[in-house]
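A quick aside before the break. I want you to see a complete sequence-to-structure record at least once, exactly as it would be stored in a machine-readable document. Don't worry about memorizing anything.
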Amino acid sequence: MNKKTENNIRTCIVSGQSLDKTALIRFVIAPDGQLTPDIHQKLPGKGIWVSADRASLEKAVSKHLFQKKTKEKINIDQNIIDSIESITLNKIISTLGMARKSGNSVAGEQKVIELQTTYPEALVIIAKEASARQRQKVKNPERAAIEDILSATQLGHIFGREEVMYCAIKPGKIAKNLLIDLKRYKGLING
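That is the input. The structure line, written in tokens, reads:
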């Protein structure tokens, strides 16, 4: 394991597993003792890490693992997990909007297929409502698509349409960060 990889490994307080930071959610304790999710992983303070799935987060809260880890009295909002889900979804929508505005994403069957021709490693997002036939049209056999996370209405809102069944994002930093957030969000909504 190289030094950079080692710097990205953190331990989940629930499972005890050492995982890449991208598979975890970071928390910090605010000066007033409030447990604060650090979705962007940039807040000051010692981080407390939990696997990015609803079951792990629920266990961390219900078993008081944050308090046990820090040995401090911590205030935890009773809706913290729903808040994390909402913040993550908003971050995804914002990032997709940024990708659209910068010309790094496209929507619609033909445009997605064309983008994949130029960029076979493009990130493809398929709406929950897409049929099996629609999914097969845009899937790249060499790369898995992200499916069943966002609705056609959510994607449509980003692209200024009523509904969008699929979109694609050019490879690069935006796509990489978006993929991380989509995987975290999937863990939050699927347990």
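Two observations worth writing down. DSSP finds eight helices and nine strands in the chain. The mean pLDDT is 93. We'll return to this after the break.
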